[in-house]
Amino acid sequence: MSKVFFTPQLFEFLAELEQNNDRDWFNTNKHRYIEHVREPLLDFIEALGEPLLGISEHFVADPRSNGGSMFRIYRDTRFSKDKTPYKTHVSMQLRHEAGKDAHAPGFYLQLKPGGCTLGGGIYRADNAALSKVRERIVAKTEQWVSLQSDRIFVQSFGRVYGEGLKRVPRGFDKHHQCAEDLKRKTFFVRYEFDDELALSNELLDETARLFSAAGPFMQFITNAIGLRY
Description:
This protein is α+β, with helices and mostly antiparallel strands. It has helices at 8-19, 23-28, 30-55, 127-139, 141-149, 151-157, 179-182, 195-198, 203-213, 215-224; strands at residues 90-95, 106-111, 116-122, 187-193. The model has no long low-confidence stretch (mean pLDDT 96).
């Protein structure tokens, strides 16, 4: 039986942070962040290492507190009108070993009161990577359509998500059967779950199961940009 990684104090901290999103409050309550948010998430990332190897040996569960799989809670406000200094969720990305940032292929998990989600894909990749994904969709249309119609995929994620362009990019057939996918700048699958699952001893196994269900999709994207899965 898997262990319980997270307690209600995680969601309590994040809910209070949303109401008190300033440095003075955070510094006063930083011990709560470390105890109830950061350390449990790092433990969870470490525990995912073994099941992740069974999904793909080229994705990394890195439990370091800096530079690892956990995203920083500090927001980058340089180019944002929203100057609140902290994110009101906690998240992680189990990134491909060749990836240097969040735009690389990766498996993802987010914990937020009333807004927990997990999944995977590639987020706002550069134009070269996007062109390779689109070219593979055209070259391997049957495979792309088949993986999205697979029963386990549909039950787990429903469909592929991701913001897109208004028109199919130049060089691609606007009447292609996967035209909506060819417009995408982000290719992602996601599964939303309730806070109760996050606080249960089932979270690790369920996360591993859903990451595995995303495997054929992740393999398609990863291979498309020339990386091993």
